[in-house]
Amino acid sequence: DWQCHKWGDPEVKTSTGMFGDNSGSTIDSSKPFNFAQRYELEGGRLKVTTIMEQGAKRVVLPMGPSDELDAMYKTGSLEKGMVLVTGYWTAGDMNWLDGQACGSAREMCSKSPAYISNWKITTNSGPAPGPSP
Fold it and tell me: HEC profile for the chain?
């Protein structure tokens, strides 16, 4: 069976200029933006597409199909069901995650709050459900 090795493979990351806390980035993280992920099978192979939108600006990050994604789907947890998990944490050695945008120096966090709102979980087809009354 497939086992997650916890080192981010497969992975897709934003690069400098795509996402950041300034108006020079396509997506300015200091302002509200939409984030979506689609999980689709193409010819029996898994493809994951991440989309970030802010007004007319859009960043699309495709991942797959790949052998690793296929294994995650076929023998991992994706076929059996998924649970949405999110977290907000900090560490001085986060370079493995965001070194391309932040550099290799020890990282510092302002510990400012992050606001996540307007959650929607839908299927890939059909109309999205409306908000609860």
Answer: CCCCCCCCCCCCCCCCCCEECCCCCCEECCCCCEEEEEEEEECCEEEEEEEEEECCEEEEEEECCCHHHHHHHHCCCCCCCCCCCCCCCCCCCCHHHHHHHHCCCCCCCCCCCCCCCCCCCCCCCCCCCCCCC
